[in-house]
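Lab meeting notes turned into a lecture example. A postdoc, R.K., suggested we walk through two folding results consecutively so the class can see how the record format repeats. The first protein's sequence and structure tokens come next.
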Amino acid sequence: MATIKDQGTPVFSALGGTITPGVPTHAAGDLLLLFLGSSANASTTPTHSAPAGWSLVGSAANSSGTTRARCSVYGKVTAGSETDPSVTVSPTGATSCHHSAVIISISDPLTVSAPWEGVSTNEAAGASSVTLSPTLSGSARNTFLVAHHADDVATGVTEDTSSFTNLLATDNNTGIDGFLAIFWLEDNDSDLSPTVDFTGGGTGVGVAGVAFNVLPIEFFADLDATLAGPSSSMSAVVGVAAALSSTLAAPTSGATGAVGAAASLSSTLSAPTSGFMGAVGAALALSSTLEGPSAEGVVAVGATSALTLNGVAIPLAITSWERREHLALGERGRGTSGRLESAVRRRKAVRKGRTTPLSAAEARAYRGLLEGEGQSWTFDTNLYSARGLGPSSGSGTIFAAGRHGTAAVAIAADLYYSTGATPDEWTILAWVNNPNVDFGAWHHHIWCSDGQSFRDGASVTEDQLAGASAGAFFLTPAIYATDLDPWSSATNYPVDSRASGGGRCWQQVTGTTGTPDGPDWDAPGIGPGNSVLDPYDGSEWLNIDTGYEDVVFLPYLIPGAWAAALYLEVLARGWTAQPGLRLSGDLVAPPVRVLGRVTGSHPVAHMLSGDLERGGEAIEFELTEAA
């Protein structure tokens, strides 16, 4: 069962910018939960941005009212010792805001990258309470409630079910203050809809909250075949993910290791020792022979860099990995003289493998990645994707100085691509030059259909400029030309004034000094950061269209844990032209372009909190060298 290990000391800031909560006591495999509450006045909504490597659990904020609240939770499964994270928050100013944060460590969570479920978010402007409704998919969950009230008028806090333990109730009289409260219910088996109420909360002051369930540790046990020898001794290995669907032979003498102990199995194991994660807190020296899929359950997702596709680590069952050569160019045969001859000029590698057990959501994402599903655009020379998909409506201007390639596209109106039926889940990756965010700088964005957003690998709360609906994928500008007044020769424009010209967006840099003639709005190759000059007075107009480059549309939802790895990949190089993939890792030298194919899969039954579930899946795949 997942349990609270330690709680860090709450930290406070009335200046904004960054806040750095201390990491409490933890060990490899523990779950760290970062709770963050912010208040802002002057009708400003606070924003939060988590450090790289942390995934968003949930966030809620007031969008109306004078004094507003935001409450966010971020999670991270540790690989070892963690340093104190710096969290970016806004707004700034000692009299205009207040931010508070604390980290709690959880031992024995489910062994996946995001061991939480049933997230519920809610907010209420000008209120003293908020109702949250986390949902359960099984039993023995640990349920958390966290809420933030935006001012110091509150004198206490309660929840109306009387079932939860109050872990934290703290305010700090700096800035406009704020009240952060965290409640916890251990071993929860029921869907609840508790209301968190701040005593004495005042009018005009907002409250926001997040609730969710932490999943307990999982015990994989697909014992459909024979366990020869050590069956009576293995009952102590509780908490090990072990899809033991084939024969484990001989090691009776060493199979007695309990959780927290070192278990030594006494025969010979080839190769995959370094990939085994073992039991919680245990060092499993698996030195006996494991056949078939028995190794699968102990190679954790992301635990090895042995194999990556476009930067994403494949959770590989090491014993399934094969490398085969086949003749790619030319043939062998006998000539008219009877002599055996070869016209082979090059060999191509075909690599085959199988993943470790995956959840249904993970399996869908890895299946899409392996198959090279989706569309990709470089916008180096035209508006067509690598698969030849052109726009169904809208247009853009190709301009030089893209993030990776020779050029990018600038848009001032929506750009649509017909994709057929819109998938229920999708992910979009894009380098974006947004004139409203660090104008002139390229940032990488990942936008997901479930509302998650990532900027430069870190989870953020922001408006998504791209999406999919009604059978189409679309890119939108941060500023629409139709929202700006058209340029007029009768108007003198001061510095920083904006206007539309030629269907595009422009901002005056120097200020006009008389009745202008107007520049060449249609000058070729002009994009964000480029300027055109008015021939009458030499005044400079800066283009403020929205730039896009290296855009990828994936018809599936990526796990949040992929975001940091994907950012590092696209930071180093452009995305491969779909359906091609870049194969790299310790098992591949040097990296090579491949085409992937899923060749089969099988369900992996497992025990989850004492209940048998069959939602797991192991995927068999093939990667063929393409370049």
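The second example is placed directly after the first for contrast:
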Amino acid sequence: MAAKSETSDISNEMRKKVQEAFLELKEELKESCIVLDDIAAEVINWTVGFELLVQLTNFPLSIYTISSFGDDNSSNHSFVDSCNKIVFFLGDFVYAYEETIKRILSLYPFKECIIYCSLSELSHTLHPNFKKLQFLAIKPFGAFTTEFSKIMEKTWKSKAKETRGLSPIVVISHFPALSFSLLVNGIFVLNNSYDTFPNTKVLSESPRSGDENNFPETPLPLLRLIHTLKNFLSFFNLKEDLYVLGNTSKFIANQLVNVGKAIQSANASVSNMSEYESPKTIVSLILIDRTLDLVSPMLHSDNLIDRIENVLSGSNGSHYTMDRRIDMSIISKDSKMVNPDSINLKVMEDNIPQNVVNLSGNLAHPNDKLVAGLVESLLLKKEKEALNEVRKKIVDVMTKEKIPFAMPKMGSVNIKQLVSLIEVLYKENQFQFYKLNNFLQINVGVVQALQSSSNSKWDELSGIEKILLLSVEDKSQSLLSRIIELMSQSNSDGTPSFTIKDIICLSIMIFSLVGDGSTAFEKRELDLFRELLLKRIIDLVDTPQSLEGWLGMELLHRLQALNSRTDKSSEEYQYDKKRLVLEVEDRVSDLISYLKDLENLRSSMVEYKSLMKTGRMGSTYIPLVAQIINNIFDPKQTELRDLEHVSSNTGVGSYLRSFSILALKAKAKPSDNSVVIIFVVGGITANEIREIRDSFKQKTVLLIGSTSLATSTLMYQLSLNVK
């Protein structure tokens, strides 16, 4: 298909441009100490691979994560003293690491410090820390880099053990190549915006587009996303033609226009200065609020990447990262988990190719075509098809490498069969283990996810979700009453069959599902739901892990302390309990309020009011993002009534157009441009990506982007803590 080929070509060009950006740093990185934050590490791992970084520095043991410098203990950084230069790659604001950078510079005798940051000069001038610099009455373009460099150099001079006879130099450079990860062809994530989540309310001080000086106080996650998205577009010389669906997306779009105007103004006022090249290609950028459809992230889908992302821990120990930690001990008792405080890179010698071999597995291997192709299959195929692909790839590899094995029986693939094949591949030829290490990691990850999800009631919850989706139009029993019934079910040992996290995720799913405002749940049901939730929290029936993402550790610890007290009959205990109950009641009330917001979030829409579409097989859930793509490229759809077009034009022309805004909306369509980017603010699921790709048959180049790969755990944490 032409579109697929063109999308692949653009993806290859994108990856090549990022590689070129790093190659230009070859001389600066040579024999340097390199320090990465978690965001930069993930971007590099997904887009160009750590192999490139190792080649450029020519000193692999001097690559560290910034979190490994968490205290003054330098024993874990034995190679730092042999480096003359330290280079930071940061995906977040430089201000986020100000104290850590000061500490590092005061501990080691470097001659030079270079900081490459994904975020621009302009974005830093809008950071609250920069705004505190009151002594800068006039803050010209370049003021941030100048002032921050001075602060670092001053710290260095006053605290460094020695500087080898030279005055220390600190250089800060904008490096937009750190803005995103390219997962597979045509699919990208802005890694530093993982914690951005749309608000269900209309954002206050929503900026008007076209005013370069109109930058209202913006929460850091949103500020980071707005400027990272602009960096991404500008890095590839793209000019955005904006369409939005949702309050937060509209806020972002207006700010993108304002940022563009501010950049133009800065470029015009400073000679020979350009943070961005002039855009050459106009692309339709469609921004969609995740909160308009929270059904898909809560589903236990038949997609292997969804399963892997949901049940395995992140590579840095959390769910706020795309990559997953794969325990290779399933095939090798000698395998050890990599220390999260350092990047353990091993370069193989002798006749083994010079690959980076990591015995702690992960999903990202962009330079291994076999593995990258397998990851794409896991992402874009249904689970059964993907498992057949996994088995076929293993058999093909062993046949090619002439490894003796018993041909597995055809038919359904099971865990035992995959484990047997993987063990043969490892045990029969240790050389192949290193040569095919990356390939083995993905296969072990599949097995691990299948094993872990069987213990986490994945299939049982999937069945419940299917019943709920089929019961939307059932008037005899409400969806909420079905969830209340689940709350009373118990295991044989008396523990609840479903955790509070399970219950809340199912609740978010059904309230979002009926988000057209036509189905209001009865007050008595909501009151009972509230009462049952409150009791389970106060009595600490659930595990701490199930409650932590919502309540937070501080409140959870106080609940645990209350439940462990022995003076339960005392007045002091009753007083403390009453205060704590009131606090928990507030949290539960906030949850109910949030669910009610979801219940009405699409009520004003015309085309996307319902997520259920009627077909020959009855009503079926169709993800909002898939509906939008289908409508955009439907030749019969002459007008997109719910998508709002945000013009980047300002001045008299814009004023005159306001008199014919309806005509403008009818005329402008995202399909007018040859490249379309659909971007979900708040995360997109692997299953949604698959559905979009399956239904997309156009010649237009379609890029799919988001702030994260959405999982139920991530959505549970973000949606209940959104500010």
